[in-house]
């Protein structure tokens, strides 16, 4: 199956055809939306054939399919991705140019599909791209939220949330499947059989996920909640309009909006309903498809590999058992075995507040039959292992323990994290089920995160080692032999400079800020969370500002600090940190003494598309979490791949990045995970650290005195006190080392030759962090699902 390239003129014909016939518009009256939609439909037409062929080949192979269950798929935009995977980017540019249109402008008109919070959701999207590129038959299953992650706006430097509206326009890439519907029950009671009190309909929407070179396409099936009764005419006729529309509104609420919490459980009834809604619809769909192929239900695990993306779909264990036992008459003990052989679970965090525990009362009210089944699962677990670990405890249902016990394999997402999972959250279960916990270090798709977003570097790499790296990222190693070549290094830095100029223009357009592309672009972009320590970053920025002001004639390396990231709406401290960063930025950026040497910018509404403009332009990647807290990180991988140097702690995948790119090409600082645990036991460790750090003490006094909050001096007393009294994430203890390391970065940046060598080696040695490698690991160690593409890729 070859790459589906198309001639520009043929593509243009198809675009005009869709403009007229699909959108009913002529060229005179066409809007940017019309052109973008016409191009998308024209390219989508080219995706259907490989999609059908892949589905047909999957049925013929009668092999095993992967089912990736995730509450989040942080997809971003799809137009550029599809154009590149079809090998039709140049044709699209030409076809539009001949119509007097700019491809980049048309691409930017597409809203992000922001159906996720952060790393976990983006990982799921990268995994879908790799599953298709590797030709592994798979389905992604999730929820078609009407409103994805909220839009972030700043008012007086404070985060304001506005509902996101990606579906306000037609979403071109999906196909509605009116015939694919399932009934999802809630509440009620179990009287032999489960009689739900409430039922909603799950309706499927399919999006084809095309892989590199258009050789294979899998399906992302997202569920939308619909009422069993569209409009209650009886109530309406009785004059009760509200009563007439309530059923629809209540049902629709289930897929209405994404909960905006990253690494914190929502714990709300609607969230539990969302988790059960999509999990049940997905499992009913899997069992129906399996049944339609005529296999014996007892062999389900030979044909089905289900991966649970964190505990959000952990109800899958009891639900699959319910379908097998209650609907297919499989004996309970056998049903438990079959379900376990199908299920595997990925843990993404150690943070206690992220481990889902549902109130027993709420659970019993919402899913009475499943609670019965969980009691059976727990009894089976206790009797088979003699374990003392309970699933139901302290009046709650522990979803981590449920997912673990019901999975034949549990994995962490970086080498350090998987070891910590064994030693901490699941230490007892690790003893009960030795060997069940393995590691699969995260990865990112090189298509979106290098080939798509970094054309200057892509071109240089293609010129230097050919194009096979795109689906075999280890090939980047071949660049190492060129690192000693001055010409190559010059081209490498020229690519970086081009991306920095592009970002400078973007910042001018988007936030009205002018920046110096020669400055060091130092970027921290990720969700705002205390463990990610944006707080420490801005404190160090103030210390650096002080140093420049103390010695304005010093030979300071100009630095642009960029922050990006959203805080969960209910996360007060994180929102305070955002406010502080914006307040500090206002003061520093207007300081005549320092403004040419230091600038702080915080563009609002960080998302996937913004990351694609920021990451290629970065010189320095901030990965400064408290060691032992960031399970992996994936932004860290994207930055290294795009030739940024990392300043970071020995946390998550930073450890493996440093091992692979070479410790001499990584700016390490901070306490290790073990030292963090020990330091916390020391009395008054934060006061001691502050007392021993004049830089930090000075900065905290400046903040407490209201230097950055003129007219509201007490604004940050809470934040400062937090550091003195409850510095759980050891900002105070790592501050000096971080500050000293930032000074080393300044010195290193001046030596352009050395810096460019280090940067090029980061790119050359980042092959391991491809999500293709990660998926190959899952396929081999967990799913046993070979590629259906033969070696020649056909
Ligand atoms: N939930 N969750 N976990 C995370 C991220 N916040 O989404 O998953 C990501 C994907 O595994 C990790 O990279 C990251 O360290 C971890 O915190």
From TrEMBL:
GO biological process, one term: glycogen catabolic process
Modification type N6-(pyridoxal phosphate)lysine: residues: 638
Keywords associated with the record: Allosteric enzyme, Carbohydrate metabolism, Glycosyltransferase, Pyridoxal phosphate, Transferase
Name this polypeptide is given: Alpha-1,4 glucan phosphorylase
Family: Belongs to the glycogen phosphorylase family.
Cleavable signal peptide: none
InterPro entries assigned to the protein according to its UniProt record, in alphabetical order: Glycg_phsphrylas, Glyco_trans_35, Pyridoxal_P_attach_site
């Amino acid at each position: 199956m070859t790459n589906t390239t198309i001639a520009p003129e043929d593509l243009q014909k198809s675009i005009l055809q869709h403009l007229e016939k699909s959108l009913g518009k002529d060229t005179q009256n066409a809007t940017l939306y019309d052109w973008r939609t016409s191009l998308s439909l024209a390219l989508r037409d080219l995706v259907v054939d490989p999609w059908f062929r892949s589905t047909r080949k999957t049925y013929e192979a009668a092999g095993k399919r992967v089912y990736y269950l995730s509450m989040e798929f942080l997809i971003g935009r799809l137009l550029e991705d599809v154009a590149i995977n079809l090998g039709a980017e140049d044709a699209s540019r030409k076809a539009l140019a001949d119509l007097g249109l700019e491809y980049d402008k048309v691409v930017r008109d597409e809203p992000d599909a922001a159906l996720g919070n952060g790393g976990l959701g983006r990982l799921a999207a990268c995994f879908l791209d790799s599953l298709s590129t590797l030709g592994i038959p798979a389905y992604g299953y999730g929820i078609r939220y009407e409103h994805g992650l909220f839009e972030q706006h700043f008012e007086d430097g404070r985060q304001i949330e506005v509902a996101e509206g990606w579906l306000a326009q037609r979403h071109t890439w999906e196909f509605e499947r009116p015939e694919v519907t399932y009934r999802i029950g809630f509440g009620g009671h179990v009287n032999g059989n489960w009689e739900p009190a409430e039922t909603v309909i799950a309706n499927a929407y399919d999006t084809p996920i095309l892989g590199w070179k258009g050789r294979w396409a899998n399906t992302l099936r997202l569920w939308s909640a619909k009422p069993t009764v569209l409009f209650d005419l009886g109530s309406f006729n009785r004059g009760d309009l509200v009563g007439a529309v309530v059923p629809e509104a209540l049902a629709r609420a289930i897929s209405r909006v994404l909960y905006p919490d990253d690494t914190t459980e929502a714990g709300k009834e609607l969230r539990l309903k969302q988790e059960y809604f999509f999990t049940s619809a997905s499992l009913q769909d899997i069992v129906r498809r399996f049944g339609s192929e005529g296999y014996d239900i007892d062999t389900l695990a030979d044909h089905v590999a289900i991966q649970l993306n964190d505990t959000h779909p952990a109800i899958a264990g009891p639900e699959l058992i319910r379908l097998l036992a209650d609907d297919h008459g499989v004996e309970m003990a056998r049903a438990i075995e079959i379900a376990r052989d199908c299920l595997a679970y990925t843990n993404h965090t150690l943070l206690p507040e992220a481990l889902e525990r549902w109130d027993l009362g709420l659970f019993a009210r919402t899913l009475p039959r499943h609670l019965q089944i969980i009691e059976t699962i727990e009894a089976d677990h206790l009797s088979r292992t003699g374990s003392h670990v309970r699933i139901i405890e302290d009046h709650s249902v522990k979803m981590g323990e449920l997912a673990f016990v019901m999975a034949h394999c549990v994995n962490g997402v970086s080498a350090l994290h998987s070891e910590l999972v064994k030693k901490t959250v699941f230490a007892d279960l690790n003893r009960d089920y030795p060997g069940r916990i393995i590691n699969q270090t995260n990865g990112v798709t090189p298509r979106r995160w290098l080939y798509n977003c970094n054309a200057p570097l892509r071109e240089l790499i293609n010129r230097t080692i050919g194009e096979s790296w795109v689906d075999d990222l280890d090939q980047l190693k071949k660049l190492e032999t060129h690192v000693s070549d001055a010409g190559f290094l010059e081209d490498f830095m020229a690519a970086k400079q081009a991306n920095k100029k592009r970002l400078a223009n973007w910042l001018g357009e988007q936030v009205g800020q002018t920046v110096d592309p020669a400055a060091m672009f130092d970027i921290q972009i990720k969700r705002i969370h205390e463990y990610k320590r944006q707080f420490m970053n801005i404190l160090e920025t103030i210390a650096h500002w002080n140093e420049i002001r103390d010695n304005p004639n010093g030979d300071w390396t100009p630095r642009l600090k960029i922050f990006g990231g959203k805080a969960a709406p209910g996360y007060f401290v994180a929102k305070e940190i955002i406010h502080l960063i914006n307040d500090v930025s206002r003061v520093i950026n207007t300081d005549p003494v320092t403004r040419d040497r230091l600038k702080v910018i915080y563009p609002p509404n960080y998302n996937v598309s913004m990351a694609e403009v920021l990451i290629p332009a970065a010189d320095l990647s901030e990965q400064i979490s408290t060691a032992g807290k960031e399970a992996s990180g994936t932004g860290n991988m994207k930055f290294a791949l795009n030739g940024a140097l990392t300043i970071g702690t020995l946390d998550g995948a930073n450890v493996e990045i440093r091992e692979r790119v070479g410790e001499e090409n990584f700016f390490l600082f901070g306490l290790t995970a073990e030292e963090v645990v020990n330091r916390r036991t020391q009395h008054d460790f934060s006061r001691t650290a502050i007392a021993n750090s004049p830089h930090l003490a000075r900065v905290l006094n400046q903040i407490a005195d209201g230097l950055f909050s003129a007219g509201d001096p007490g604004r940050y007393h809470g934040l400062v006190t937090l550091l003195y009294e409850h510095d759980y994430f050891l900002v105070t203890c790592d501050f000096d080392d971080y500050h000293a390391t930032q000074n080393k970065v300044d010195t290193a940046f001046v030596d352009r030759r050395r810096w460019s060598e280090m940067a090029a080696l980061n790119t050359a040695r980042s092959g391991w962090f491809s999500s293709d490698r990660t998926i190959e690991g899952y396929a081999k160690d967990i799913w046993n699902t070979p590629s259906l593409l033969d070696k020649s890729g056909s």
